[in-house]
Amino acid sequence: MESVAPILKVDNLSVRLDDQKILHEVSFNLNQGDTVAIVGPNGAGKSVLFRALLNLIPYTGTITWAKDIKINYIPQRFTIDRDFPLTVKEFFHFKTKNHHDIFSALRSVGITDEHHISHHLLNQRLGWLSVGQIQRILIAWAIIDQPDVILFDEPTAGIDVGGEETIYHLIKKLKDEKDLTILIISHDLNVVYKHATSVLCLNKDLICYGAPADALDPAALKELYGEATFFTHHHQHK
Amino acid sequence: MSSQFILQLIIGGIIGIGAGYIGAFMIIRRMALVGDALSHVALPGLAVALLFNINPFLGAFLALFIAIVGIWALERKTNLPSETLVGIFFTTALALGILITPQAELLEALFGDIGNVVLTDLYITLPIVILVIIALFLISKPLVLGTISKDLTRSMKVPVNAINFLFLLMVAAIVALGIKVTGTLLMGALVIIPAAAARNVALNFSRYSFLSAFLGGIAAMGGIIIAHQYGFAPGPLVVLSGGVLFLVSLLFKQ
Asked: Distance between CA atoms of B43 and A215, rounded to whole angstroms?
């Protein structure tokens, strides 16, 4: 690993918002092709970390991305009213009008029926889709312009367990196909064990960072979620 | 048809189109109420312009501009929601305006005076509306995306704050122009109603924004024609025409 320059270097990153300490001296490196799951309790600063990495909020410390890297972001909050007059096609046209690219991005997220795509899906209002469908469209939207890195904030919010499982499979498949570096905020530690190459646990401070099986030891879990945690993980999936 | 009436129709139609188009963006940005109350701020500006004998459009625009910058800044400095700020700031401005507008001009200022337009008004209106429509079209992507997710838009290195400011500036310009047609009290309707009607009917954004502009033009011209035929004040009839178009659009709701 030492021979490869990291795709991201974070040194002593601290964020304060309204005089509240949100992140405190967080440091870590990321290599090309990593899938990093970011875990931690509510209010641990997970989304804030993303916003700092995207340079959307003021911070102290240094964040160094590799040169000429393209980073796409899938935000946690994506609210669109049912009667918002924007079709799936128009949403994609914000990025590209190339139909071949749109179809290929949709194929990558498991939407393969070309008849369905061109006659139904593309002409639907975005707000009419289910949460799971919107999630897929957002992922397709995020990969359509060939990013190197995707920051993925809580992709499972509001999706039932079955749907959740497929979204994570999807992310893994994408990673394998496109050699993406993925940072993903996750609530589900089981998913972390199954799909992440490393885990970054955050509770204002960086609690642990490393391969999931090593990093998420009982001490780290206790520090993350408190004394009362009775978390069981399933190594047999690995 | 007198040439004066034709001039009214043309200017009214152009303003209606501009108001409808910018209204399409205001509605999806949930600025309907802001747009309505904002128009009230124009009154003191109008009054000052009348008192000092300068172009009323300029007076209205300056008042709107100050109000918009004020709201924009206050929203960032205080934690008051913008609805509260708008409610306080804009109604106070209306009260002040009513007080200082010369009595003889008050009715016109409140309800519009498209009957008095001159050719100069066309020379002011046409380029501004064309510029606003072109600018809106060019920034429509960040405007729409920013409505759905501000963080997502900013992560694409779009200067969201600058674009929002430019947008508010254009709102001020269109509202200031529209006061000629409907007056300060009713101008909000000319930006809100066409867009609300268009949203009922259109599935996609390009049709929605086009239809909103189209309906704005129809409402303005329709109102002016009916007012001319039956000898009413045009302003209220423009708004009523818009209201009828909205009711019709409900029949086609998607």
From this structure: 65
